[in-house]
Specification:
heterodimer, A: mainly alpha, MetI-like fold, two-stranded antiparallel sheet, flat, B: alpha+beta, 22% helix, binds adenosine-5'-triphosphate, binds magnesium ion
């Protein structure tokens, strides 16, 4: 009777389960996360999904305000128009240029700053706290500041050349290099935060590891690569993503600093969108173009993750 | 291969001297074991030899050339750090490889050497792992492999075997000595293990409070400790030290204390009387015996069975703790009074004032 032991074995367990009050089940991590975030998710649904949906609606219509509000369904016409618009491509190029430069400068300056702050003599350690200040300036404020700073009459350029005995003015905000100047200001704004996080990472590296590198007769770049850098890589990845997104969607900083100028030499995608939607009031076209920006942001971060982030995931 | 001279080395941290006026010569091709209590400055000394820590004052010479101000790069040293340091993001293989990156050897030779070193410390199957995935003992062995894969002028090994089990420790001990003798490379080896020190060292240096207390062959430091500290530190079980005085009695010198009186023989029979003296005798030289003149009475405190022998730990009537070695399986009730005898000629006599042995005219002859 092979089935007997099985039933005999199952019975007491079943009886015990019936006798005991049902054991309260622990929430899994995912369940807990859902419970905690439901209110936020609902809120996000309202504040993100609604405008997003409305923008999607707009992008398929031609909106007119003059002669009475009207919305005419035009299908993909707005999207096609954007792809055929040389201004769009030009602004896209400027956005990418601004973003790449900003990210490189932010990460580079942040890393350099962190190295300097790490090696400060104890007497100068208080600088570590001071250096965060630029980050406390809003992009709006930074834009105004850098506008004055770069302008011919008031700027640092003029001050510098007059210090060397030259007469005249030096304008840093020029057609050719305005994007670089903007990127520098954006990096000034963001790099201190990067430096702060990198410094915190650096201070966890055991000093003896540098001794090991010396015993191995590593050159200084090898020491940097094998000892200093590894604990920073995850932070660098995170900040590369963050500053990429921030740079792609920068508007207020450019608005206060150059208004897309001189001429249209700093009309990045966000600024072009502003002009189309809020100056020209061509809402449908602007909405369609904004979806290209959204795709660009998602695409670049996805690319960074695929190329870099997967390798940096904590093991 | 290098002869290393440390001349009057001082290393000061704040107001504390980690190493103070240290003079030490490590001969070419010698294996020197540094032994000493925790915090006596062994690691600091190693770091100064390696060039990682700059001495506050003093000179370091390699083969007579002053290297005090040169960087570790120029000293060609292989080192195992006390904490078995490894690069955390590199595999064991890559970690070992880093030692040879600068060697200029051809690739296949490098690989062969890495595999040989890994084989020697038995970590071949761990070469793909990251340090974080290794046990403490495995990390230590990889760190050792990383050092021995080189052919340096000098090996500096700071407690490289401390986290290993007894069997592995014994086999690695033999491997390291064999390697050192085969290539005749100077080696400084720090350990807290008495057996390791006695069996491995060509010479043993005993450090205390940043100073060299005694340096000599294992036989010398064991049989003729030059200070009271060295006498008590070397040997396991440690030497028995009994306080008393030395008096002259009928043309003989007698060691006298509250517990017993012992007519001196051998070298110390010729010493001058002293109002304070410390008699040192190894537990292995004490035999349990009946009472009588010259026998030391002692009350059993505990007995440690070691398998091949037993160690009787006991208190003399005046309260000094002494140890004697008895045959394996020796039993006695705690509190029993036993007596121990030893040949007076085997005893060492120290002056507690100078901490050194009493001067005798013909000690060398004896
Ligand atoms: N960087 C440092 N700053 C301040 N004091 C230090 C430093 N390094 C070592 N010391 C002190 O110097 C003394 C000697 O240290 P060291 O590491 O050489 O001891 P050790 O003999 O290797 O001890 P152990 O056997 O425990 O490893 C200790 O008192 C230690 O506190
Ligand atoms: Mg140490």
């Amino acid at each position: 009777m092979p089935s007997l032991p099985q039933t005999a074995g199952a019975d007491p367990a079943a009886a015990a389960a019936a006798a005991r009050p049902p054991r309260r089940k622990e929430l899994s991590n995912l369940q807990f996360a859902l419970v905690v975030t439901v209110p936020v998710l609902l809120f996000l649904l309202v504040v993100v999904a609604y405008p997003l949906g409305y923008a999607l609606y707009l992008s398929f219509h031609e909106i007119r305000f003059f002669g009475g509000y009207s919305a005419e369904f035009v299908g993909l016409a707005n999207y096609k128009a954007a792809l055929a618009d040389p201004k769009f491509w030009r602004s896209l190029g400027l956005s990418l240029r601004f973003t790449v430069e900003t990210v490189v400068l932010t990460i580079g300056i942040g890393l350099a700053l962190a190295l300097v702050l790490r090696d400060l003599k104890p007497r100068w350690r208080w600088l570590r706290a001071m250096i965060i200040l630029p980050w406390a300036v809003s992009p709006y404020g930074a834009g105004i500041f850098f506008a004055y700073f770069g302008r011919g009459q008031t700027g640092i350029g003029t001050a510098l050349i007059s210090a060397f005995g030259f007469d005249g003015t030096l304008n840093l905000i020029t057609q050719a290099a305005v994007i670089e100047y903007l990127a520098l200001g954006a990096a000034w704004n963001m790099a201190p935060l990067v430096a702060f996080f990198l410094l915190a990472n650096m201070l966890t590296t055991p000093k003896r590891l540098y001794d090991l590198a010396k015993i191995d007769r590593m050159r200084s770049y090898e020491t940097f690569w094998h000892v200093t850098l590894p604990p920073l890589r995850f932070t660098l990845f995170v900040f590369t993503c963050i500053s990429t997104v921030l740079a792609l969607k920068t508007f207020d900083y450019i608005f206060t600093e150059t208004q897309g100028g001189p001429g249209n030499s700093s009309t990045v995608l966000t600024y072009l969108l502003y002009q189309i939607s809020f100056v020209n009031l061509d809402l449908g076209y602007g909405a369609a173009m904004s979806f290209f920006l959204l795709a660009l942001i998602l695409g670049t971060t996805g690319l960074i993750y695929a190329l870099w982030g997967r390798r940096e995931e904590r093991k | 291969m290098a002869r290393i001279d440390l001349q009057n080395i001082v290393k000061r941290y704040g107001s504390h001297d980690a190493v103070s006026s240290l003079d030490l010569t490590i001969h070419d091709g010698e294996l020197l074991v540094l032994l000493g209590p925790s915090g006596c400055g062994k690691s600091t000394t190693m770091n100064m030899i390696a060039g990682l820590t700059e001495p506050t004052s003093g000179r370091i010479l390699f083969d007579g050339k002053d290297v005090t101000d040169t960087s570790p790069h120029e000293r060609n040293i292989a080192m195992v750090f006390q904490s078995s340091l490894l690069y955390p993001h590199l595999t064991a293989y890559q970690n070992i490889y880093m030692s040879l990156k600068r060697s200029g050897l051809p690739r296949n030779e490098i690989e062969a050497r890495i595999l040989r070193a890994a084989e020697m410390v038995d970590v071949r199957r761990l070469l793909d792992k990251l340090p974080g995935q290794l046990s403490g003992g495995e990390r230590q062995r990889v760190a050792t492999a990383k050092a021995i894969v080189r052919e340096p002028d000098c090996f500096l090994l700071d407690e490289p075997l401390s986290a290993l089990d007894a069997a592995l420790r014994m086999s690695l001990r033999a491997e390291l000595v064999n390697l050192q003798k085969r290539f005749n490379t100077t080696m400084v080896f720090v350990t807290h293990d008495q057996v390791e020190a006695m069996t491995m060292g060509d010479r043993i240096g005993i450090m205390r409070n940043g100073k060299l207390e005694q340096i000599g062959t294992p036989e010398e430091v064991y049989n003729r400790p030059e200070t009271l500290f060295a006498a008590g530190f070397i040997g396991s079980p440690p030497m028995n030290l009994i306080e008393g005085e030395v008096v002259a009695e009928g043309g003989m010198k007698v060691f006298a204390c509250k517990d017993f009186r012992l007519p001196l023989a051998g070298a110390f029979a010729g010493m001058a009387p002293a109002s304070a003296a410390v008699l040192g005798i190894r537990p292995y030289l004490m035999q349990l015996a009946g009472s009588g003149p010259g026998a030391l009475p002692m009350k059993v405190y505990a007995i440690e069975q070691l398998g091949n022998e037993a160690i009787v730990i006991a208190d003399t009537p005046s309260g000094a703790r002494v140890r004697a070695v008895a045959p394996a399986g020796f039993h006695a009730q705690v509190g029993t009074v036993l007596h121990a005898r030893f040949d007076p000629a085997d005893a060492l006599l120290y002056d507690p004032g100078t901490q050194r042995p009493f001067a005798v005219q013909d000690r060398e002859a004896a």
